[in-house]
Each structure stands twice: as C-alpha cells, then as structure tokens.
Amino acid sequence: MLDGVSFDQLRTFITAVDEGSFSAASRKLYRAQSVISQTISNLEEQIGVELFDRSGRYPKLTPAGVVLLADARNIVTNVDLLKARAKGIATGLEPELSVVVDVMYPIAAVTQVAKEFRQQYPGVALRVYVEALGGALQPVLDERCSVGIVGSLPHIPSEMAYEHLAGVIFLMVCASDHPLASYRGKIPKDVLARHTQIVLTDRSDLSKGREFGVMSPLTWRLADLFAKHHFLLNGLGWGGMPLHIVRDDIENGRLSVLRIEDVPPEGLVLQMSAIWQASSPPGPAGRWFIERLKQIPSPASTIPTGKTSGKSRSGSKR
Fold it and tell me: In terms of pTM, does the model score above 0.70?
C-alpha cells in the first residue's frame, strides 16, 4: 500500500543511489547490508514498481527508478524544510520574511544577501517586492511587509523605526546625442526647463501633491525605473538615475552626466534606510537581513570616465 511508504525507506533509496551500491549505503547509514536490501525491497513491493535492476554486479536504477528518484528527493527535501521551519517557529523564528525594496537600491546587494539568507535560514520563506517612492513605504505601513528598504521619500512616519544603510549616488543624465549633452558650462535651471524631464512617479498616494527633484515644467512620468532608463537612452528627455544602474552607459558613451547649477559635480547622495513598524520589530531572520545589508559597502562613487556636459571651454554657453 502506498500509504505505508516511510520516510526512512525514501532516504535509504536515495542513499543507495548516491553511494552507488547497497554495501556503500550500509556503511553510510551504519546498517547491515541485508537491512538496506530489505528496506528497498519493501519499498518496491509497497509501490508496485521495481526501482533497481539487480542482474549485474551492482544494482542499477531502472527507468522507473530514475523517474521516482526525483520524486523521492523532492519529498525528503520538503520534509526537511518542514522540520526546519517548525523548529524555527518553536524558537521564535518568523516562518516568512517579506521585504519591500526601493527601486533605487542596488538589487545586486539584495541578491547577495538573499543567497546568504537561504543558507542561514533555509526554513524561512523570503518574499521581495520592488517599488518606488511611497510604494516602498506603503506595504510596511499596511503590515503587508515586515521590512522596507526606502530612500526616495524625505520623511519617514513617526510610527516607523529605522536604521541607515549605505547611500546611493544619484546623477542627472541624458543621452549622448541629446542637446543638453553638448551644453558648455554648468546648465542653469532656465535651460533645463526648456527640455522634457523624465520623472519617476509613485504607485501610492503617499507622495501625492509633492515633487522630488523636478526641475522642469515639461515632464513625462513613468512608474518604472527600467522604462525611465530606456527613455533616457533613447533621447526622450533628461533625468536622475542611480549611478550603479547607469555606470556602464556612461563609460560606453550612451549617456552623459549633466553638470547642473546647484547640484554637486559628484552627484547627490540618496540616503537609504531599513524601516519597520516600531510596534512590530523584525524577528531573528529579519534582524539578520538588515544587519547583513548594513555590512554591504556603498557602490563605487567615482563617476566613470565618459561624456560630461560642461567640459568644453569654461564659461561659454550655447
């Protein structure tokens, strides 16, 4: 009967395959070879399928055994995960960690920490969302996410607790063939106002009626940073982008860095923070995730070599 299949039988089956023989499996599991052979025979009888061809010197998987081996591995893995998750819950470890990340934050840093998180907390499910502006704050306010990585909003509500992370360098750029790219000298605000600015907009209402870094009355608004990047590359306007996203474009001459009045030549620093509800602090897994992000160094802040507006004769304007 299939209901009689045991976890031990599946582990023995997998070990026999991985070790290459019943005798090697017996040494691995500290059991007599006859016990290994009998356990697998009982499994074959219960499921009604021959798993090994025993006609040769060593048992060899049958075609059916190859197929069922993958199922057996999945079952064992899922049971191990269940045990790890149950142990974590019993000791106060959260069963799931939901994190919302500001689109400006380097996704490479999140990926690096996620890889380590999987090893550190195999029983904790991880959910990661990427949003812009208030969209990275709203899920934490609504308690849909336990941790937020934010930076685009200048104000964090009083009910939130937070810790600073490494900042992100933010540059004003345009396509290399855009008129602003060849402007000589620092670009005044009245000149910027004649050209369309590509602006990242908010999916939430938290920034409704507020503008962040908008310098031109001519704006195209996009809710996706990937789309904004492509609009800039195609000369549809100018706008701000994180350095870690456009570094390669600047180095290869696809984008130019704009020198703008009242904007530091090395760019602006966008302070990033980890936030959570003060009344509901992160559990052990969330705390580990935040601490690991704090250890990630800031991306290289040196502006790469490439075309920059204002590098021609000083003071002459077009």
Answer: no
